[in-house]
Write a structure and sequence with these properties.
By secondary structure, the chain is an alpha/beta fold. The chain is built from 11 helices and 18 strands. Strands 3, 5, 6, 9, 10, 17 and 18 form a 7-stranded mixed sheet that branches. Strand 7 and strand 8 form a beta hairpin. The two termini are about 20 Å apart.
């Protein structure tokens, strides 16, 4: 058995407890990774609090892990002990959607990412008393010093970049950037408005800048985040409010924007993100909201060429897209380091509080 320290969620709306756990060793098709850094995402908070289809408690969460490979199963190729890796979402690789190059829409996304069980249905973690603890969250449960993952979870990354900078690429940053570069495929000269300037939204802003957009608009309720958005590439910042549509339409001389990205998780913001579209125009909904959240839209808007699309993980294939983002970072075109604030692993509850309050854009835990 493998001994590790894990942050366990034992109750909704409560702190995590650091406890000693044991993991089953990797099977033939699995890899053992020593986690060195892991980002905190609002999906972790939503899972703890029961807002999403989540594992039973107690559970080990975390899904933006990065670390060093310690052992590989006998069926594994392309990954070796000592490799630095980023961990992303789990997918089967065999269903029709995976075979069509859309692993983010894997038909088995729920059992592989949200049940807290390994792909074979086993529970791989136990606490000191011997009681089972759910894990395998997004196939990784990276709020722990060790993780056993499938090959599909892994992206091998350069060893000369600190892992705490690369960890959030596995979900939040990939989601925002991928929405702009992969799903919407924005082109030089296009206009984009981003609603919500957290890690996901700011990644979308950076991607829009990278794509050469002629107008990049940032919307948020936080002035400091709007200032950062402008540093990262936004041409203009708007404080959210009831008259936002009027202000944006005035700014764009009545034209609206070709694309909008809703990363705020607020139904009213989604309505505004649709209302400011040009015709044609596309709004991408990428915020993680509690199940059952409803919205009101003007149906007639979609008769004149407006489109609303929902996306997960930025429609990204991690093994291809994460290396692309790393290359952009290395070239100075994608300054993801400006989003990150680090915390010691034993300060996880402070990091979670800062994530919930907005005091930190992308908290990243440093493992011992």
């Amino acid at each position: 058995m493998i001994h590790a320290t894990a942050a366990i969620a034992r109750a909704r709306h409560s702190g995590f407890s650091l406890e000693e756990v044991t993991l089953e060793p990797p099977k033939a098709d699995e890899v053992l990774v020593r986690i060195k850094a892991t980002g905190i995402c609002h999906t972790d908070i939503g899972a703890r609090d029961g807002y999403f289809p989540v594992p039973e408690l107690p559970v080990i969460l975390g899904h933006e892990g990065a670390g060093i490979v310690e052992a590989v199963g006998e069926d594994i190729s392309g990954v070796s002990p000592g490799d630095h890796v980023v961990l992303s979402f789990a997918y089967c690789g065999k269903c029709p959607n995976c075979q069509a190059g859309m692993p983010y829409l894997c038909q088995y996304v729920f059992p592989l990412n949200f049940t807290g069980l390994r792909a074979d249905g086993s529970c791989g973690h136990c606490d000191k008393s011997g009681a089972q603890v759910r894990g395998a969250f997004f196939g990784q449960s990276s709020f722990a010093t060790y993780s056993v993952v499938k090959h599909n979870n892994i992206v091998v990354v350069p060893k000369d970049i600190p892992l705490e900078l690369l960890a959030p690429l596995g979900c939040g940053i990939q989601t925002g950037a991928g929405t702009v570069l992969n799903a919407l495929d924005v082109q030089p000269g296009d206009s984009v408005a981003v609603f919500g300037c957290g890690a996901v939204g700011l990644s979308a802003v950076m991607a829009a800048k990278l794509a050469g957009c002629s107008q990049i608009l940032a919307v948020d309720i936080n002035q400091e985040r709007l200032k950062l958005a402008q540093t990262l590439g936004a041409d203009v910042a708007f404080i959210a409010g009831d008259d936002l549509v009027e202000r944006i339409m005035t700014y764009t001389n009545g034209a609206g924007v070709r694309y909008s990205v809703e990363a705020a998780g607020v139904p009213a913001a989604l309505r505004q993100a649709v209302d400011i579209l040009s015709t044609p125009g596309t709004c991408a909904l990428i915020s993680g909201v509690p199940a059952g959240t409803e919205m009101k839209l003007d149906m007639a808007a979609f008769l004149i060429g407006k489109t609303l699309t929902g996306l997960v993980e930025g429609a990204s294939v991690p093994q291809r897209f994460i290396p692309e983002l790393i290359a952009h970072y290395q070239a100075g075109r994608f300054p993801l380091d400006q989003l990150i604030q680090t915390y010691a692993f034993d300060n996880i509850n402070a990091a979670l509080a800062d994530a919930e309050s907005g005091a930190a854009i992308k908290p990243v835990l440093l493992m011992p």
